[in-house]
Amino acid sequence: MSTLQITVLSFLLLIILVAMGVHLGVSLLSCSIVGMILAVGNYDVAVNMVISTAYNSLKDYIFGVTPLFILMGLLANLSGASGSLYDSCHLLFRRLKGSLGYATVVANAIFAAVTGVSIASAAVFTKIAVPQMRKHGYEKKFSVGSVAGSSILGMLIPPSVLMILYGTASGTSIGHLFVAGVIPGIITTVVFMFTIWLTIKVKPDTVPNMDEAVQTMGRKERMSIILKPWPMILLILVSLGGIWLGYFTPTEAGGVAAFGALLLVIANKKFTPKGFLEVLRNAGVSTGSVMFLLITAQMYSRALAVSGAINLVEDFILSLHMPPMLVVIMFMIIFLVLGCVLDSTSIVLLCMPIMCPIIANYGYDLVWFGIISIIAIQIGIISPPFGMSVFTVKSALGDIGSTDGDDISVIDIFKGSMPYIAGMVVVLVICIAFPKVVLLAL
Questions:
Q1: 87-96 residue pLDDT tens
Q2: CB atoms within 10 A of CB 39
Q3: 144-169 pLDDT per residue, tens
Q4: Which of 38, 118, 237, 418 has the fewest beta carbons under 10 Å from its own?
Q5: Rounded Cα distance, 276 and 281, in Å
Q6: How many whole angstroms separate alpha carbon 231 and alpha carbon 80?
Q7: Straight-line distance from the first to the last Cα atom of the chain, in angstroms, rounded to the nearest whole number
Q8: Distance CA 99, CA 354 (A)
Q9: Which residue range is the domain that position 186 belongs to?
Q10: Are 264 and 84 within 8 A, CB to CB?
Q11: What is the rounded CA–CA span in Å between residue 75 and residue 71?
């Protein structure tokens, strides 16, 4: 078979399997084997190549970063950090109208540096923030929109599972991706806060006046609540700052962060043998899932390379004689469209093995391309019709155990998220137009 036929057949098979609901890792594995057999024409050789790829995929020391940061996030959640962060941020913004909205965005940004997963942020803060905002009279679309919209920060601010997946698929330094994600993450947080301010200016009735109970709270009590989450923030600064300054590798930073989070659990008197074993079990399950995807993604990349599919697509793009920046914009549009129907992980693992060699051939920095790609892909998780964060928020509303979510529809959440989509588009344009914004910290 020709390279074109193999490429089309394997890609169609992959799309069909994913559309049928087959696990992404299983789909990638199946297509890798089929593509490899068709490319080399020998079953035994193809299987041996797949096996060697699987063996070599995760033997690098850097992949220890995955279980360690996952463990850190789970331990931090066990310590009660999410609730403390939200209460602290609420008090810090108490003098602003819409303080709970600002608190949701900032707490999500800080929590993102712990979890690395947008869906986790959406689930946690739906249960913490939405009941509080509804109780104080915040408009329902504003309440759920601020949670769903700011959950995007979970994959943008390091440590991010999506950055680890991208680094693996593209061969880019995960440590450099972590450092490069900090400034765009801060810019996105500021843009989201401006979005809230603008929303309140345009529609003042969206939020109530300042919370009287918070305003009358004693100074000593306020300071106690404000300072409670700072050990966790210090732990984040130490781990990420250590990577930036070169004191830690990403894997060592993950070890420091996980150990520090365990100390916080003990210090907050939340440690129980049962709870700790549950955290370890969840960390193992999550790590296994991510690692399986990493292995099958490497297999898929190898199959594409062996079949000549990557060179075929690259030659086709180059034959169009498009300006390089137009190719980048075209890829971003593809991400925006795919983000509406696929999850972030699938998009990264499907697209990056083909796109990254093309981007590298044009001379662009793959760290920069990774960050702008993650921004574009993350817009999709709050975009209709299948925005995953939106449906996560809706699902979490049903778990609250009250009437808070009864009158809130999926349409309400999508509508509430629209201003944040606009904000993310602004951030994406800034990062594309000014690459230094992304690469400044490197």
A1: 888 788 888 8
A2: 24
A3: 999 988 888 888 888 888 898 898 88
A4: 237
A5: 9
A6: 12
A7: 45
A8: 44
A9: 3-439
A10: no
A11: 6
Answer yes or no: is pLDDT of 215 > 70: no
* Sequence-distant (≥ 6) Cβ neighbours of residue 85 within 8 angstroms: 107, 110, 111, 229, 232
Give the HSE-up count for residue 173: Cα atoms under 13 Å, Cβ half-sphere.
Answer: 13
263-306 per-position pLDDT tens digit: 989 988 888 999 899 989 988 888 888 788 778 877 887 787 77
User: What CA–CA distance (Å, rounded) separates 66 from 91?
Assistant: 34
How many domains are there within the chain? 1
* Integer CA distances (angstroms), 228 to 112, 151, 257, in order: 18, 22, 18
- Pull the structure tokens for residue 441: 């910290």
420 contacts 149 by C-beta, under 8 angstroms: yes
- How many helices and strands in the chain, by DSSP H and E? 24, 0
- Tell me which amino acid residue 76 is: A
Instruction: Please give the Cα distance from 248 to 176 (Å, whole number).
Output: 12
The CA-atom distances, in angstroms, between 3 and each of 39, 53, 301, 311, 313 are: 8, 21, 15, 10, 10
Burial label for 19, CB within 10 Å (0-12, 13-18, 19+), is: exposed
Of 38-47, 114-123, 162-171, the poorest mean pLDDT is in 114-123
In whole angstroms, give the CA distance from residue 366 to residue 274: 43
Task: Kindly compute the dihedral angle of the four CA atoms of residues 252, 257, 259, 261, in this order, to the nearest 10 degrees.
Answer: -170
CA angle 385, 390, 391 (to 5 degrees): 85
Distance CA 90, CA 282 (A): 30
Kindly state the helix (H) or strand (E) to which residue 259 belongs, with its residue range: helix 250-267
318/312 Cα distance (integer angstroms) = 10
